[in-house]
Amino acid sequence: KESDIIRKDAVHILAISNVPRSKIIKTLEANFDHFEEDITKTDEIDEILEEIAEKIPVKEGTKTMLKLKPEYYNEFTPFYYHYSHGQRQSAENSYYQRQANNTDDFRPPPLPAYTKLTTKLRNYLSSPIIQRF
To answer: Across the chain, where does the E strand assignment appear?
Structure first.
């Protein structure tokens, strides 16, 4: 679903640094140039950002910065495919720093749901004939 993809990208943009809304929009435009409609013209992005981000108070006259809400860090992985080399380094540092400072259980991000194709593959790999090898 398109909104889930936008949400996942927004989480990964916000996880490595606090950014203004305009930078999130530019990054999403670059990542989603293959979509038929212009995703930046929808109110859906604002709804997603309200859900996953909180506003950081800044000086008067500067852009409002957004910060990822703590409960959404469990969806973040430093190996996200849209990261450049520098962003990946920053993401890994952020990830391991959070892991070292976290006193709660630190769990890896949840695996994606099975699709029709992967369900069949799972059934195939667990079959008795394949298990013999």
So the answer is: 19-20, 53-56, 65-68
* 23 compared with 112, residue with greater pLDDT: 23
Distance from C-alpha of 30 to C-alpha of 102, rounded to nearest angstrom? 33
* Closest by Cα among 71, 72, 70, 75 to 112: 75
The pairing of strands 19-20 and 53-56 is: unpaired
pLDDT above 80 for 37: no
Question: Can you tell me the distance from the alpha carbon of 83 to that of 91, in angstroms, rounded to the nearest whole number?
Answer: 9
Model pTM greater than 0.90?
no
Measured CA to CA, the distance from residue 91 to residue 13 in angstroms comes to 10
